[in-house]
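Supplementary Note 3. Input sequence used for the single-chain structure prediction.
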Amino acid sequence: MKFKLPLLAVKNVNVSKRFYQELFNQKVVLDLGKNVTFNGGFAIQEDFAWLVDLPVGSVIEKSNNMELYFEVDDFDEFMQRLEKHKNIEYVHQPKKHEWQQRVVRIYDPDYHIIEIGESIGVIAKRYLNEGYSIEQTSQIIQHPTDFVKMFIKDND
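The predicted structure, written as discrete structure tokens, is reproduced below.
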């Protein structure tokens, strides 16, 4: 058995497709009309209740029980892009976790949670470039030293 991809139920496939293309640079790899698969490894489906033989009202909006997670190298640039979309509803404003990663969470047009986080690799490189040791960086970003070592080559 092989897991293929998560699928999100959406009200309007065209609105959701445009949202993910414009804001997250997702490319459509398969468009079947009411079902669209993106290069990021997830799909959207219009008329989900009909597809799986559920009552129409049983597909619940804003259940807040899952999220899609994206990472960006330039968090500030992404936030500028996000600000241009005035109809975005935030789960929370940008914040910084104790492991020094800046994140923001928003809802997509169908109220699925989307998390956008600053790349952990970018954060590791930043601390290494500032002169912190591998061990110190590992402690700061709360990732194993082997993870931090992957970014030493990128700093040469």
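The helical segments are 13-24, 48-51, 75-83, 120-129, 134-141, 145-149. The mean pLDDT is 95.
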